[in-house]
Amino acid sequence: MLYKGYELKVKGTGVSIEGVRDFDPVHIFECGQCFRWYREPDGTYTGVVRGRAANVSYRPGVLTLDNVTADDFKQIWFDYFDLGRDYDKIKNAVTIDPIMEKAVEFGRGIRLLRQEPWEALVSFILSSNNRIPRIMSIISQLSSLFGKEIEYAGRTFYSFPDARSLSKCSLEHIRECRAGYRCEYIHATVAEVAVNGYDHQRLSRLETDEARKELLRFKGVGSKVADCALLYGGIKYDVFPVDVWVKRVMEELYFKREAGFAQIQEFASERFGMNAGFAQQYLFYYAREHKIGI
Questions:
Q1: Alpha-carbon separation of residue 63 from 94, 99, 290 (angstroms)
Q2: Is 251 within 8 Å of 223 (Cβ atoms)?
Q3: What's the half-sphere exposure (Cβ side, CA atoms, 13 Å) at 21?
Q4: Which pLDDT score, from 0 to 100, does residue 129 have?
Q5: Which of 42, 85, 107, 247 gets the most CB atoms within 10 Å of its CB?
Q6: Superfamily of domain 117-232
Q7: What average pLDDT is seen over the chain?
Q8: For the domain with range 2-84, which CATH number is right: 3.30.2310.20, 3.30.750.44, 3.30.470.10, 3.30.310.260?
Q9: pLDDT tens-digit profile of 193-225?
């Protein structure tokens, strides 16, 4: 069947989607934007999205999702993989200098995942001053402690816990995920969201500066975490998350001198505009893999 320009076929316990371009699982799952996908010995990836476990593989033009129905694809995975966006246009828009030309070519298979906004917020609070393997371990522990069991391929996975479930937990219980001081941030954020909610749709309607300010009210959320929550939660794409390392990367690649966080944000906004988030991800992946700024 045809679905929004793709040929969707049901095969065994999953689906295959033909006509998918600009898609490389290594680039997508290992570029630093997500923490719940694990590479299998055969090179495929298994992860959990919105309470569903699935395995993902790709060969030129064909995306294969196991443990996914046609309805699942339409309701969850099409948006999650941002398959409605023309990434050729994104690449052309951000390839405006030799640095970006190299970065885009290197990460040509990146797509920005539209992650569940609540999960993105909590995940990036946990990411503060942390390394990716450690973040993955903490989130896995948090999910196994407070999420729901999911059986797939003879293994047990866990959904990411919602705010209501976490709000019933004491700080001591949350500390079992071994996130250190970040547990206090999660506990405080959960308490506020349990009362006032987390309306990502309202955030998307706000100007970006206003949306960022809304997130800054949560304990443990600074500008970088706020921008990550907006970008990777599929809320805003004109943000350019900057931490100390990204600051060094931008200084080395562009400024050739020391630059302030606000100066880098202004530079990215003027240079990349509404596509700043995509540009940051290409640059981040390129710089990390080439050990720039390290």
A1: 25, 30, 28
A2: no
A3: 9
A4: 87
A5: 107
A6: Hypothetical protein; domain 2 (1.10.340.30)
A7: 97
A8: 3.30.310.260
A9: 988 899 999 999 999 999 999 999 999 999 999
